[in-house]
Design a protein that fits this description.
single chain, Serine Threonine Protein Phosphatase 5, Tetratricopeptide repeat, 2 domains
């Protein structure tokens, strides 16, 4: 594990993201993860790039790994909901949303998402 070089690759990956150079950003963020598999921030950043590229399964895998490494991550639920939703896994998105609502009962965005997901599930279940 080489934390310093991992952080350098991570920072360069962020810079590339800012310049909308997504493939090189993924490469640098992947390098950061290879150099330090515990670098949660790199998984989260790479998940954002994958979401932008519509590589939702890869984004979900990175988000789940980030949560595994650091279970109390703030605001990762919104990203998980988006990834599950994009994959059509509405029940999983709804479960994450319910957990988030329990943790943050005053967050009206989760209540709104909950309603949207329930509506989508109803529509999906109709023949």
């Amino acid at each position: 594990m080489d934390r310093q070089s991992a952080l350098q690759a991570y920072q360069y990956g962020l810079d590339l993201m800012d310049m909308n150079q997504f493939d090189p950003a993924v490469s640098n963020l992947s390098l950061a993860i290879t150099r330090d598999p515990q670098l949660v921030e790199a998984y989260l950043a790479r998940a954002r790039v994958f979401m932008h590229k519509q590589s939702y399964q890869q984004a979900l895998e990175d988000l789940l790994e980030a949560v595994r490494l650091q279970p109390d991550l703030p605001d990762v639920q919104m990203q998980l909901i988006a990834a599950y939703r994009a994959l059509g896994r509405l029940a999983d998105a709804l479960e994450v949303c319910r957990q988030a609502m329990k943790q943050q009962p005053d967050n009206t965005r989760y209540a709104q998402l909950h309603d949207e997901l329930c509506t989508e599930m109803e529509i999906q279940s109709k023949p």
